Amino acid sequence: MYILFREKDIPDIHKYDVYTANGGYEGLRKSVAMQPSEVIDVVKASGLRGRGGAGFPTGVKWSFIPKSEPIKYVAVNADESEPGTFKDRQIMENNPHQLIEGAMICAYAIQATAVYIYLRGEFWDLAHELDKCIEEAQRNNLVGDNVLGSGWNCPVYTHLGAGAYICGEESALLESLEGKLGQPRVRPPFPAQKGGGLYGEPTVVNNVETLGSVPFIMREGPAAYKAIGTEKSPGTKVFCVCGSVQKPGNYELPLGTTFRELIFDHAGGMAEGRTIKAILPSGASGPIVPANDKVLDSPLTYEDMAALDTVLGSASVIVLDDSVDVVWAAMKMTKFFKHESCGKCTPCREGTYWLDKVISRIMDDKGRPEDVDLINNIAKNMTGVTLCALGDFAANPILATIKNFPDEFKAHIEKAATAAVEVAKPAAAVERRPPVKRAARDAAAPAAGD
Known about the structure:
Blueprint: H1 16-21, H2 26-32, H3 36-46, H4 58-63, E1 73-78, H5 87-94, H6 96-110, E2 114-119, H7 124-139, E3 156-160, H8 170-177, E4 203-207, H9 208-220, H10 222-226, E5 236-243, E6 249-254, H11 259-266, E7 276-284, E8 289-290, H12 293-296, H13 302-307, E9 316-321, H14 326-340, H15 346-363, H16 371-380, H17 390-404, H18 406-424, H19 438-444
């Protein structure tokens, strides 16, 4: 059953007429006939959790917005910067009106005065198409002034960022929306509080996939949504699968699907002659896990991933086969986070620099025996001390690979030690011959031109 990828069942659902002919905007119509607090209660009852990475209960997040404040905003996080994540783009390309409807339901529930859809800079083409869809919705009284005759006004705008990973973090996103440098804010106040949101007003920040799930909940009811997935992780989830698989792509499946089913039944398994070695369940930011039977048979839910000492996150599943050097993979991820660190926090700014420097040395087989402990210590000192989670994300590739694949680090260190021994060996003695007398040497030389 498709909740988000409805184009699989309904061709041309990106068109307004097709979308509305198949239940489109019915969820919004139902919502504006209810009290805003009742809409929040329905979303709470569905158990929907944020699909952007944190997995926080969506209805609870909406309920944090103070009712007494006259100005409130909804910011849609369409930045989609996580390596291996490409789900939000597909939703916006093929089912844009469902995103707009979900954002408007959220806006009505908190009585927002405007919605801003923040897209990463590379999505400029999508922004133009979304603008056309917003205009269609506005012509049909679904966006803008006096929405569906309710007396409630709420315009929707698109805004392009500049392609910075850090702007996927909600407070950095808000800073960028305000035209400032995209860097995380000091909290409290939090975005839902006065002084902490967009332009200092209370703001809900939700991911594209999260809001895209809301129209189904309002149209079909929370029980229908909870009937999919598991008790603690209900609904469907879009799993972005890439790496060493035969059929990479987006797969919308019920939460609770196992790694084994996702990778081997849907994504086609490994290339011929290769075996699965490791999995990154949530792109570069989540801890890597070995692809053993326990992991492969684990349900893909928020709580089951926590039991494996990793996170589901945005479910950008990167699969590594037995040809991949895990130290190399950790180095590549470290370089990414070093590049994307905004530099505001000292532990993240300095930590990513030194992690990159030392792990690159290990990868070049020039590492010292103490280097593994050194980067492990650096990574530990980065966690939990930065303004946003990027410091933790940057530490994860180091901490998890050292924990789960210690032999691969050991092999690089041993190779470096062997190379050092070879360099240190004394040069072989050179056999000394008696000098040849000049006259004899000249006599033995060939004549010019021979």
